[in-house]
Structures are given as structure tokens and as C-alpha cells.
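Backbone-to-sequence.
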């Protein structure tokens, strides 16, 4: 068919995208619907299709989508010079990145872009309204994200369990959505792990037993039943089916699912734009009890947790390493390994960087004697314990760096400002949405919409920034005060400590960071050791 605009041969990429949030809108945005629209358009306009690029389950605010990146690689390689999507939102829902592609990258690389449903085509020239469409698409993504979170929260509160796979020992209820029932075919694996643990076996030992007895892994069981994880297990050697890891075993041993509870919000997205998952503090987790029938009794589970907490690596002399898991390298962040020097007449323990000990040469020794570390940590805890006992108020003010009265007044003012800003932001969002609907329906002109949109866009940006700043300030101040009080309460329980124990250290200290020692010209040796306490971090 003859090219409609010029004789350029357009090697065309059909790009299709569907996010998890979009699925609620049904067939109108489905992959199949998009495919039909794009194929028909390409056929009618004589575009040479070189391939389809499909990102199913990816947010439009994330431009690191695998097939989107593959498409852009083909653009860079000269294989693609035309991209077609159903609409602008299928390409992306982040207005800054959209402006980058449409205004800079595509013109530079001479790539034609077409949004079929909106009749936008860079060959003909994009309409002046495109920036506002992109802005609205971003606002829509943010609003949808907020609604989805609210929906999940409501489901969690009713005990629903949302996930792609049921944990080992359970299966999804055949009739009740988001409900788990015990899987009689696999519960024995969970019972076996806890039985071994209750009889003194650690995670490493249990892992070896599962491998030796050829117990199938959760992944392999899912592969056998549903064909999932075929990329891992299809055609793989037999030993892959029972290749348990210590991390898997530890995860099962600590999972409250097996006593009938469900934990939500262990992780969260950084923002509605950045979907990278980050671990949330345990204090922010939400526990919903009795969401499914337990496999393990609470007594057994608690006993196993106690054994995990108290289990420490034993030295050759039979003593327990009280610093286990706490001592970190200042340069690479790895844990320091414990060792013993038995060549001297008086043997002594010491720590060194475990990464250095692997012979990678990627770090240095970070050597520190056990007795030196012990004495330093004990002296610091004794100092803070004494300060708590004699002048608790002074210490609290030192930690907060402000008077309680001043903080209370500031929080009250910030809370009032936040409430006012959030109210106005909701009003502006509503006005913007209604105005967009009015323009789409032809009730207002594009000129008037553009003029008003500029005003509302500016106010939205200012309000977003103000709200974020106020929320951060309030959260920080409130959390700082609460954390300081928690730590002081812990210190009050440890009156004038005379020795260190694993229990004491793990209760008070988050981590101990050891720097490489520095030798002076006089041969002296200086070494910095930083103690980061629970709740409050590092204090001088």
C-alpha cells in the first residue's frame, strides 16, 4: 500500500503495555485489544511491522520495562524508525520522560511516533495538547495507585491473602478467592522442618538433610503441578528439584503463615513512579491473625524463634560469640568473621573482614581484637547507662536536639499546614479532572483548557512539594521522639552493666562498624569503631 505522507519506509514497532492496575478496566485496554487496533492501523497505513514488543504487568511510570528497553535498543541499532501505540498512556505515564522521548530523543533519531486512538502523529506534528495529556496520564497513574493501595488495605483487613503462589504446605482455596487451605500433599515438608528445628537442628543442618533425603523444593512442586518456573526446572538435572538453600529454610522457620497469621507491608514501592521494592521496618508491618488454619502450633513456633535468636557460633573453647551478626566492615559492609590466634602463649580471639578472608583482594583486613572490641563496647554502654540513671531529661534533649515544648508547638503548626495543603490539593485534583472531562466533551475550548491547566499544574506541583516536606518533617520528628524514648527505656533496664551478653547487645545495638586501623609515625595504632544503637542510630 502507498505510504500516506512520503516515500519513507517505516520499519515499525507495535508496542503494547498492560499494568496490573489497568486490568480492572477490562477488554478496552487488554493486550489483545491493543494488538487488534495496532495491527489494523499498520495494515491500513502501509507500515512495515518488524515486531511486537509487549510488556504485560508493567507500570507506565517505569521506563525500565524489559521489552520497552529491547525496542529502544532496536531503535539505537537502526532496526526501528517508527513506534505505534494505542494511546500515549500505553507508551508511558510520566510526563517528564514522555517529553524527553517526544521532544528530544525521537526527533534526534528521526523516529516517527503514533498514538492511534488520540490521532497523535509526529509525522504530522503533535498537537499542543499533548503535554497536558501526558500530565493527566501521570495524575491518573498516581490516583490509581492510591486507589489500589486502599483496595489492598481493605482486603488485608478482612484476612485476604494476595499473592501469585501459595507458600509450601498450603494451596489456594478452590472456591474462596485469596484464601489459603492446607495442602495435605506438602504439609509434611513444613512439619519436618519444624520438627528438626525443635530438636536442635539449625537452618544449615536442616538444609543438608532435605537435600540428602531428596525432598522437593517449593519451586519444583509448583513446576510439577502448574508448569511454572519451567525456565529453571525444564530439562534440568534431577538434583535441581531438591536443591534447597539455607535462605529458603530460614524463611519457612520464621514465617508466621504456619501458625495461621498473615503479615502485610513487609515491603513497599519507593513511590508510585519508582516500583523498586524496599524493606519496611518491622514496626510498620501489619499482622492479621487467624487468616488460615495453622500447620504448626504457636508453642512450637515460638520455641523455634527463641532457638534462632539464641543460636550463636561456638568457639573452640566452648564459649558463644556474643557479637555474631553485629560487627560490620566500614568499607565493604560485609560482616566481620571471628578467628582465633593460638600461636601466642596466650591465645586470643579477633575479627577480620570476611570479604578479605575470601582472598578476593576487594577489601582490607579491618583487624580488631575481641578483647579490645569488648572493652570499648562495654565502656560505651556503661557511659550511657550512667547518664540515663543520673540525668534522663538531659539525655532525651540531647537526642532530640530540642525541647519537648518547642517540638510540640512545631508539630501542631505543621499538622495544621498539612491538613490545609491536602484539602486544597484534593480540590485542585478534582477541578483538573472535571476540566479535562469538559474539554473532552467539547464544553470548553482548548485555549481555555490550556490556560487553566497551566495555572492548576503549577499549583499542583507547589502543593505536592509542600505536602511531601510537611509529611517528612512530621514523621521524622514524631519518630525521633518515639525512638529516643524507646532507647532510653531499654537503657534503664540495663543498670550499670558489668558484662556483655548476646541478649544485651542485640537488644541495644543495631550494628558495630569497624574501620581499618591507621598507624602513626610513632608506631601507634588508632582505629575508629562506630556503634549504631537501635532506634536512634549513631550518637556521640
Amino acid at each position: 500500500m502507498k505510504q500516506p505522507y512520503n516515500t519513507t519506509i517505516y520499519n515499525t514497532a507495535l508496542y503494547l503495555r498492560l499494568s496490573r492496575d489497568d486490568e480492572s478496566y477490562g477488554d478496552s485496554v487488554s493486550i489483545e485489544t491493543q494488538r487488534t487496533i495496532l495491527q489494523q492501523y499498520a495494515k491500513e497505513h502501509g507500515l512495515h511491522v518488524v515486531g511486537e514488543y509487549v510488556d504485560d504487568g508493567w507500570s507506565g511510570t517505569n521506563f525500565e520495562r524489559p521489552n520497552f528497553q529491547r525496542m529502544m535498543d532496536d531503535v539505537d541499532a537502526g532496526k526501528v524508525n517508527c513506534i505505534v501505540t494505542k494511546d500515549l498512556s500505553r507508551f508511558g505515564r510520566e510526563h517528564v520522560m514522555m517529553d524527553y522521548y517526544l521532544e528530544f530523543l525521537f526527533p534526534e533519531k528521526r523516529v516517527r511516533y503514533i498514538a492511534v486512538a488520540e490521532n497523535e502523529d509526529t509525522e504530522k506534528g503533535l498537537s499542543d495538547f499533548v503535554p497536558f495529556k501526558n500530565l493527566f496520564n501521570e495524575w491518573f497513574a498516581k490516583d490509581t495507585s492510591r486507589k489500589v493501595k486502599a483496595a489492598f488495605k481493605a482486603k488485608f483487613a478482612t484476612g485476604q491473602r494476595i499473592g501469585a503462589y501459595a507458600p509450601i504446605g498450603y494451596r489456594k482455596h478452590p472456591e474462596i478467592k485469596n484464601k489459603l487451605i492446607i495442602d495435605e500433599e506438602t504439609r509434611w515438608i513444613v512439619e519436618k522442618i519444624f520438627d528438626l528445628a525443635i530438636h536442635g537442628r539449625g537452618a544449615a543442618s536442616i538444609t543438608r538433610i532435605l537435600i540428602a533425603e531428596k525432598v522437593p523444593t517449593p519451586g519444583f512442586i509448583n513446576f510439577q503441578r502448574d508448569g511454572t518456573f519451567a525456565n529453571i526446572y525444564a530439562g534440568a538435572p534431577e538434583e535441581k528439584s531438591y536443591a534447597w538453600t539455607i535462605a529458603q529454610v530460614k524463611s519457612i522457620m520464621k514465617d508466621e503463615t504456619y501458625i495461621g497469621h498473615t503479615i502485610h507491608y513487609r515491603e513497599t514501592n519507593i513511590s508510585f513512579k519508582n516500583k523498586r521494592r524496599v524493606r519496611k521496618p518491622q514496626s510498620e508491618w501489619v499482622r492479621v491473625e487467624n487468616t488460615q488454619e495453622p500447620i504448626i502450633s504457636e508453642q512450637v513456633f515460638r520455641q523455634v524463634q527463641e532457638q534462632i535468636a539464641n543460636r550463636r557460633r561456638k568457639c573452640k573453647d566452648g564459649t558463644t560469640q556474643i557479637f555474631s551478626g553485629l560487627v560490620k566492615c566500614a568499607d565493604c559492609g560485609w560482616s566481620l568473621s571471628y578467628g582465633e590466634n593460638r600461636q601466642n602463649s596466650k591465645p586470643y580471639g579477633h575479627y577480620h573482614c570476611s570479604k578479605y578472608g575470601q582472598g578476593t583482594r576487594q577489601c582490607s583486613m579491618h583487624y580488631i581484637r575481641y578483647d579490645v572490641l569488648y572493652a570499648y563496647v562495654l565502656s560505651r554502654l556503661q557511659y550511657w547507662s550512667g547518664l540515663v540513671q543520673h540525668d534522663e531529661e538531659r539525655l532525651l534533649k540531647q537526642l532530640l536536639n530540642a525541647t519537648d515544648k518547642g517540638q510540640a508547638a512545631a508539630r501542631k503548626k505543621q499538622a495544621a499546614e498539612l491538613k490545609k495543603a491536602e484539602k486544597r490539593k484534593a480540590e485542585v485534583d478534582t477541578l483538573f479532572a472535571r476540566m479535562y472531562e469538559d474539554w473532552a466533551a467539547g464544553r470548553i475550548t482548548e485555549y481555555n483548557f490550556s490556560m487553566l491547566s497551566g495555572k492548576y499544574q503549577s499549583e499542583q506541583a507547589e502543593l505536592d512539594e509542600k505536602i511531601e516536606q510537611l509529611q517528612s518533617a512530621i514523621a521524622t520528628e514524631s519518630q525521633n521522639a518515639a525512638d529516643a524514648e524507646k532507647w532510653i527505656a531499654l537503657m534503664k533496664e540495663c543498670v550499670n552493666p558489668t558484662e556483655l551478653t548476646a541478649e544485651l547487645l542485640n537488644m541495644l545495638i543495631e550494628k558495630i562498624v569497624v574501620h581499618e586501623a591507621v598507624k602513626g609515625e610513632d608506631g601507634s595504632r588508632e582505629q575508629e569503631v562506630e556503634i549504631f544503637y537501635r532506634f536512634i542510630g549513631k550518637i556521640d
